[in-house]
Amino acid sequence: MIPPRRRGVCPSLAAPMATGDGLLARITPTGATIPLDSMAALSAAARRHGNGIIEVTSRGSVQIRGLTTASAPAFAEAVTAIDLEMIDGVPVVVNPLAGLEAREAIDASALAAKLREAIRAAELNGRLAPKVSITVDGGGALHLDALAADVRLRAETEPNNPRIHLSLGGDVASAMHIGVVSPSNAVEAALRLLAVIAARGPAARARSVLQAERVDPFSAAVADLVTASPAAPARARSETIGAHPLRDGRIALGIGLAFGHTGADTLERLIEAARRAQACGFRTVPDRALLVIGVAPERAGALVAAAEELGFFRRDERPGHSLDQSPRGENAPRQPDSSLRLREHRLCHARVAR
């Protein structure tokens, strides 16, 4: 039986949401690399129990469409058997290449894991609004500046002195900056900020507290941990699509999904191409994209060609985006025009769940 969902609650594996093409289940990875076999198993489960449509959301979650009341429990059981690290509770989102980039100030994955455990221990998961979220940005090139969150942690490094900026209720441009903390105090500071939100009731968000009470209750909660500091400067837009060097000499290849979705059969063909490129897995990105992790540099070209042939793209050619400034010759690979992709998107979402 599928439990009822209250207004404002996000769909999940245990409580999928009714849509026009059946039930939709959402999985939020922790940010750890999803092994190739695990991604293949997830794809197979989406085809077996749903309609085979797999989406990556604007916040990096994975959505499976076309489930039914009969198939959704079987899908959930299949997913729990997969080697896949999922967030269960308040979403703590890390920068896409956390732990892998050479330029990171800190390993955001390790800090995020400690924070998730602290949130569970403090029993905050059930006291916070369903959409409350946290970002932990380790300071790498693929950053989280554009992703809004209730509590934002962003690392930067001064000479021999890594520190973490704290801000509230928005993205890098709109959030309220609180100050900086040492990495050793970051979890405690974040917990205290979340506790301020939770104390205002199960519908409260950081932004609503700021609007009603200004920053004072937050500042008071972390006064003994925080040092005053100017806000960290905004960075150039984080461009997922393309190749990103990793500290082990391999690369991560960012590829785009038109309208953020693909089919299970297509994804499985991409997984096989990733195997041939000696990749170790995938990461989802809060920009409706995927990162293929651990690609051997000499095999990246073949993977790019395979991805483009499958309908993925390696430039930011999504409708409404124009980041590619490289010359486009008449023989350059081209994607279907946006109207065609929109028609295909609508047809996919009109399928009746099996």
Fold topology:
Blueprint: E1 17-19, E2 22-27, E3 34-35, H1 36-49, E4 53-56, E5 62-67, H2 72-80, E6 92-94, H3 108-121, E7 134-137, E8 149-158, E9 161-170, E10 176-181, H4 186-198, H5 206-213, H6 216-221, E11 242-245, E12 251-256, E13 261-263, H7 264-276, E14 281-285, E15 289-295, H8 300-309, H9 338-349
Parallel strand pairs: 6-7, 7-8
Antiparallel strand pairs: 1-2, 2-5, 3-14, 4-5, 4-13, 8-9, 9-10, 11-12, 12-15, 14-15
Structure, explained:
The protein has 354 residues and is an alpha+beta fold. It folds into three domains: 64 residues, no CATH class; 125 residues, Sulfite Reductase Hemoprotein, domain 1, CATH 3.30.413.10; 108 residues, Sulfite Reductase Hemoprotein,Domain 2 (Sulfite Reductase Hemoprotein, domain 2, Alpha-Beta Complex). Strands 1-2-5-4-13 form a five-stranded antiparallel sheet, sandwiched between helices. It has a five-stranded antiparallel sheet with strand order 3-14-15-12-11. A hairpin with a 5-residue loop joins strand 4 and strand 5. The longest helix is centred in the N-terminal third of the chain and has 14 residues. It is globular and about 55 Å long. The N terminus and C terminus are likely disordered.
Keywords:
354 residues, alpha+beta, Sulfite Reductase Hemoprotein, domain 2, five-stranded antiparallel beta sheet, 22% strand, globular
How far is the first residue's CA from the last residue's CA?
A: 18 Å
Gross morphology is globular
CATH class of the largest domain: Alpha Beta
Order of helices and strands: EEEHEEHEHEEEEHHHEEEHEEHH
Domain count, please report it.
3
List the total number of helices: 9
The count of β-strands is: 15
CATH superfamily of the largest domain: Sulfite Reductase Hemoprotein, domain 1
